[in-house]
Amino acid sequence: MKHNLADRLLDAVDEKKNPSVVGLDPRLWRIPDHLKEDAKESTDDAFKAAGEAIFEFNKGIIDAVHDIVPSVKPQVAFYEKYGVEGIRAFKKTIEYAEDKGLIVIEDVKRNDIGSTAKAYASAHLGEVDMIDGNTVSFDGDIVTVNPYLGYDGIEPFVEVCGEYGKGIFVLDKTSNPSSSELQDLVTEDENKIYEVMADLISDWGEQLIGERGYSSVGAVVGATYPEEAEKLREIMENNLFLVPGYGSQGGTADEVIPCFNDDGYGAIVNSSRGIDYAYEDDDEFGPKEFDKASRKAALEMKDDIMKSLEKGEKVPDGW
Amino acid sequence: MKHNLADRLLDAVDEKKNPSVVGLDPRLWRIPDHLKEDAKESTDDAFKAAGEAIFEFNKGIIDAVHDIVPSVKPQVAFYEKYGVEGIRAFKKTIEYAEDKGLIVIEDVKRNDIGSTAKAYASAHLGEVDMIDGNTVSFDGDIVTVNPYLGYDGIEPFVEVCGEYGKGIFVLDKTSNPSSSELQDLVTEDENKIYEVMADLISDWGEQLIGERGYSSVGAVVGATYPEEAEKLREIMENNLFLVPGYGSQGGTADEVIPCFNDDGYGAIVNSSRGIDYAYEDDDEFGPKEFDKASRKAALEMKDDIMKSLEKGEKVPDGW
Q1: How far is A120 from chain B (nearest CA, A)?
Q2: pTM for this one?
Q3: Which residues does chain A have within 8 Å of residue B186's beta carbon, measured at their own beta carbons?
């Protein structure tokens, strides 16, 4: 058994004194022109050029933030868009970020029946069978998964997490407006679906609790639903929360505080667009210095969350 | 607006007089040795060899069944396993099957918040923005999607389906044993979650009903739950069902009949392992003739379903 992921992630949070995550959501039309011009000059293949521009953009951001944040979260949809070359950029991004000491959360929200979930788990977190022998494929640290199919589709991930020291965040209460349609339905026992799911996630994670008291099976809880987060924090006391929705989606630093436990741990907060495209609204740094604008935005986010943690009296000991 | 997908799919079902789908789930260790040997000889790169063996295997099956089935369903997990080269095999498989006149269901179960779902929809069904201009990427006909996030995450797919004549199947009652954990929960209004979802899917599909009375927004309903299927058939009268779970997962032809309407339409039934690896249990055809064994198994499945449709008095007019 490799080092527990929850322990590893919390150690990284302590090292940077920062519970935030930079989402890497490359939207080609918002990537600075000079990167796209360089990419076009390097190849005649439009997909290769797109992949190259995306990777160079990510590289700039990773270089600019790797010493201040513990983790990055590439959202695979923005890579998958570009097929083979997009996936190449995704894989290169994971490798580059890991080389820089970052914990990589692959935001893939994969889900399927057991035998298929096993293929996803081996692809993203474990080892895959080749014609001869086994090898790693994407080799991320953590993936997001969707629980609609129940534990059959989660178990293969949990097994791989145990074996390879990896982690998952299971969707529970998502940050988007229509998350209520299914997740807020009330059962005959007067529980909301996201509460039922929270109980399940808590159970699923029990076997992977590390030395620091948290499980490598965490939950996705949107910053946009602070009241729900407060309830969920009680149900899932040993589960880390991945909190999307801060920044561009409307969640504030004060609103993410209920996701943290009183010891100041238990949540990591993601911002994607607000960091990636910070240069668009920055007076100091333009497109050629997009990386500096991203670093500045990441530091502002860190300060913003820290102030709210102080206000909520949830600053970890020793920070 | 392009030709409605539901119309296109039902025309294909009529043409082949067969409502079945061949799932393309390439498991490397079950692919005949001669294909793997050939692939290894063609390259020193283990991932490229895996991708090549997978594509050649699929090509054999597609060649063997394209004149008898209307559709194939590659399950992306088994390709994604092999990273860039796996995705290359996935894309080549889609293209090859479409060239052979088959409707391609990309079994990807994608899901995310709206802005991200839009990226997935454009990748798999629509057009993606390149550095200059737009182009198609995977260009499948249909994708499977997961509804845990509500309509925000479905709407971008529905829009693309309208614009490009494509379709989606939304997970409702899945074929796996633990599907009950979430999908069978009972709400305070005494509805099961899969019934609530069915109402939503019916609403979501209303704007895409074609000339033949079915919507391009369909539902995934497992063959392993015939009683549930009967209820769901009533709620979603205009929605096509993609029915997994026949064969290797334990569903029988009689059990899939409740998924059909009285007119004999309304469902397509998938088998993956039972067709792909038919050669393993075939007395007549061994690994070198895996394609012939697959054709034989596909014809047996067609007959099996047809007999059950006859028994249930659900054979379409004119077949």
Answers
A1: 5
A2: 0.98
A3: 187-188
